[in-house]
Design goal:
255 residues, alpha/beta, Rossmann fold, 8 helices, 7 strands, SDR_fam, estradiol 17-beta-dehydrogenase [NAD(P)+] activity, NAD(P)-bd_dom_sf, EC 1.1.1.270
Length: 255
């Protein structure tokens, strides 16, 4: 991670869970991390914790609604003005709504596409532009995917969410191919966790907190810090090594 010290990383969805853990880990490694979310109160608190801990990097909170392209473009413009640009882009933000294919609301489907697919693609495009403008040839784009992007979960409330994550799998491989066609050494990686104990299930099952708790009580789940460790592992790979897809799940998870 030595070569990343002082360089700029963008982490989307950095207020809680995996995003917060990744932001903390990168700050600990000496990076300047722009952490964005719709609500930055928790990121501001995390930034203060990182500073108090004496980490060599810094965490810069940025308020951004990723379902709004104008806000994303404004964020990248601000990063360019204040920090020159993005060297590492961690597309972590994602959400799931309980909207089955046969009875779901279009609004919920659209929101999942806006955040899980379009925002990821817009951030990827703008991060690549930022790297090219500055002749950065060793950047890295990491998409936090899901095991749901590799097999369909047999639960109607997750089918549309899984479809958006299958899209992330395809987008990451498509990105890798386009980066090769562009003769660049910028890397693209997909990290696909199984069940991670975060606020995710409680947001997904917001009307049934007992069902959400049962998800995490059924096994020893992955922790957000496990995913953060995978991110630093990927970033630590030698320049000639391309890690395409990291699939990780709890030992006790069946599928």
């Amino acid at each position: 991670m030595e070569r990343w010290k002082g360089r700029v990383a963008l982490v989307t969805g950095a207020s809680v869970g995996i995003g917060a853990a990744v932001a903390r880990a990168l700050v600990q490694q000496g990076m300047r991390v722009v952490g964005c979310a719709r609500n930055v109160d928790k990121i501001e608190k995390l930034a203060a914790e990182c500073q108090s801990a004496g980490y060599s990097g810094t965490l810069i909170p940025y308020k951004c609604d990723l379902s709004n392209e104008e806000e994303i473009l404004s964020m990248f413009s601000a990063i360019k003005t204040l920090h020159k640009g993005v060297d590492v882009c961690i597309n972590n933000a994602g959400l799931a709504h309980n909207e089955p294919l046969l009875s779901g609301k279009t609004e919920g489907w659209r929101n999942m596409i806006d955040v899980n697919v379009l925002a990821l693609s817009i951030c990827t495009r703008e991060a690549y532009k930022s790297m090219k403008e500055r002749n950065v040839d060793d950047g890295h784009i990491i998409n936090i995917n899901s095991m749901g992007g590799h097999r369909m979960v047999p639960s109607a409330d997750k089918h549309f969410y899984c479809a958006t994550k299958y899209a992330v799998t395809a987008l990451t491989e498509g990105l890798r191919q386009e980066l090769r066609e562009a003769n660049t050494h910028i890397k693209a990686t997909c990290i696909s966790p199984g069940i991670v104990e975060t606020e995710f299930a409680f947001r997904h099952h917001n009307s049934d907190p007992e069902k959400a708790a049962a998800v995490y009580e059924s096994m020893k789940c992955l922790k957000a810090e496990d995913i953060a460790s995978a991110v630093t592992f990927v970033l630590s790979a030698p320049p000639h090594v391309q890690i395409g897809d990291v699939q990780m799940r709890p030992v006790e998870q069946v599928s």
